[in-house]
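Field reference: "sequence" (input) and "structure" (output). Example, DsbA family protein:
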Amino acid sequence: MPENSTSRTPADFWFDPLCPWAWMTSRWMLEVEKVRDVEVRWHVMSLAVLNESRLDELPEEYQEMMRTKAWGPVRVVVAARQKHGDEVVGPLYTALGTRFHNNGEGPTREAIAGALADVGLPAELIEYADSDAYDKELRASHQEGIDKVGQDVGTPVIAVPGPDGEQIAFFGPVVTPAPKGEEAAKLWDGTLLVASIPGFYEIKRTRTQGPVFD
């Protein structure tokens, strides 16, 4: 692996900490960094923003989650980025996801506060969970990812440079558990291969297993 990270291929990754499937994909991407010359750059997107125009069409339980739990985590991540720089986004996402998903704490205020402490960020950032102070920046980050891939997707979105230098963006892959080692490399290589084909849009099959957090 080259010592100079500037020689590595940037992979822009849009996530919402709430989503367990994005969490699976993000853990795979950390494995990809170990086995391919790739550097992940983390960005926020928001399931609350994605669904706000069609909230009434969603199941009641999901509506409640979007209204009461979805805004806080992404708002705190965006506030942390605005105040402390891009470099805190990845570690904070890891701390949030570990608490939300692996530890089963869910997206509670206590879990968010714990994640901030885990990475040494100021405790007062938790106050942004209930503040719209950086919603403009949150929506701009979300829209940047959506503009690259289209409207009919969720999180995660990944964008990488294509053969002509223009970014190729795609949703997913959706996978569980997160592949490691050579399996992570094979999935990365295959994903890039199909995503680079003009006119290619989708491969899909029924999910028969929920997220496996390990």
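The radius of gyration is 17 Å.
The longest helix spans residues 20-35.
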